Each structure stands twice: as C-alpha cells, then as structure tokens.
Amino acid sequence: MSKPGKDLQQPATAAEVDAFLAKVRATPSAPRQGPKGRLIFAMDATASREPTWDRAAQIQAAMFQETRDLGGLEVQLVWYRGFGEFDASPWCSSADELLPRMTRVYCAAGLTQIGRVLKHAADEAGRGPVHALVFVGDCMEEDLDALAGAAGQLGLLGVPAFVFQEGRDPLAERAFRDIARLSGGAWCPFDANSPQLLKDLLSAVAVFAAGGRKALEAFGRRRGGAVLQLTHQLGGRRRAGG
User: What does the CA dihedral 223, 74, 111, 120 come to, rounded to 10 degrees?
Assistant: First the structure.
C-alpha cells in the first residue's frame, strides 16, 4: 500500500543507472542447466502499483525478444496484493504465455509481502535453476531484519535480486538496497513516467539471466541508442583495466 507524501516523480540519475548496470555486469553468472535462462519477475500489485503494472505488461515481451538468440528465457510471474493474496505462475517461455497472466491481474489495496517473494524465490531455487529475481515495487511494510535474512539466503543460493524502486520512499530504499546487496544483485530507482528506462533495465537483466555478463555487453553494443549510452562508460572502464 502506498504511503502518503512519497515522491514518485524523482527519476534515477544517470550515475544511478550506470551503477546499476555496472553491478549487473559484475554479478557472477550461475552455471546454466538446460538451454534457457530462468528469471522470476515479481511485482507489488497493491493499489498504488496499477499504472506501473499496466506499463510492465506492455513491455514484458522485450525480455523474451532480447534473449531468443541466447537460447531463450523462462519467466515466472509472482505477485501479491490485498489481504495476503500471493500467486506464482507456471514458468512461461514466451510473451504470449506471460501477457494473459499479467492482464488478468488487478491491483488491490494491501500490505507488502516482499519476504514471501524472497522465500518463494529460494524455494524455487531449491527445485531447479533460477538465474535472477526481479522485483518491482514502491514501498516496504515489513521487518527489515527478516528481509535481510531472506536476501542473504538468496545470495547463498546464487540467486541475485535486481530491485527496481518506483519513487524514493526512504524506508523502502533502505530495504531494497539491502536486499540487492545481500543477495548479490543490484538496486535502481526509476521514474513512473519513463517506461523506456524500465524496459531497458528489465531487458538488461533478462539478457544477463539468459547469457551472463558477456551477453549483456553484446546487448549494449547491439542495441545502441539509449542502452549504449547507459553502458559505454562501463565498457570503457573494463577495457582500461584489461
């Protein structure tokens, strides 16, 4: 549930986006078991999230499109809303499978269930490979220590959490940064009015999940434009360091 008075319009700075992509590229890639990368795509579906949910549904196809040449991607949609509602889809290997599941979801007021998302990701990793967790949310209403413990467990399992924060609620930011750090992932804020940024960052993590750091570097070179602008400094630093 959204908290009053939070700033939803403060966009990520270029330095924050650059730092996020640097962290993605520095994250160790889990060994691949099978042809497809596997990514859990988790979203807060409480009342304040409806506009971003609609945008994410519109851009989710990009994750599959950008990973086809890497062997493909399997995505599991996870969401929570209302009074304890929580759902995880089967693994989807195409946008045509995932989109109907997203469009059937409506957002409803309720408390956050981020700890449940983290536990679910750990349970999934115990059943089979999970190469990354993406979480998109704007607030946090849970125990910080419990979330830190769950994030640390993901780190031990080799499942980095890439956390996208809409707005800059300070309590949420503290929790989200800790989740990313302790799991070995990365955190980045985004502007609710900049869907292209969210699309680019989601695509970057999907490419990482499907093909690792080298694939992410190639993705930046191939896409050019905004993606290349976000990654060229990272590539320059790597070349300078050998």
Answer: -130
Q: What pTM, to 2 d.p., does this model score?
A: 0.81
Q: Which amino acid is at 100?
A: P
Confidence of residue 81 (pLDDT cuts 50, 70, 90): very high
CA distance 233 to 115: 35
CA torsion 231-235-241-242 (nearest 10°) is 150
What is d(CA 175, CA 92) in angstroms, rounded to the nearest whole number? 29
* Structural contact between residues 100 and 129, judged by C-beta atoms closer than 8 angstroms: no
The listed CATH number (3.30.70.2570, 3.40.50.410, 3.40.190.10, 3.40.50.150) that belongs to domain 14-237:
3.40.50.410
Q: How far apart are CA 144 and CA 175, in angstroms?
A: 6
Mean pLDDT score of the chain: 82
Show me where the domains of the chain are located: 14-237
DSSP state of 102: H
Residue that is written with structure tokens 């994030």 in the block: 151
pLDDT in tens, 151-162: 999 999 999 998
pLDDT 10s digits, 161-215? 989 888 889 999 999 999 999 998 888 888 767 788 888 888 888 988 898 877 8
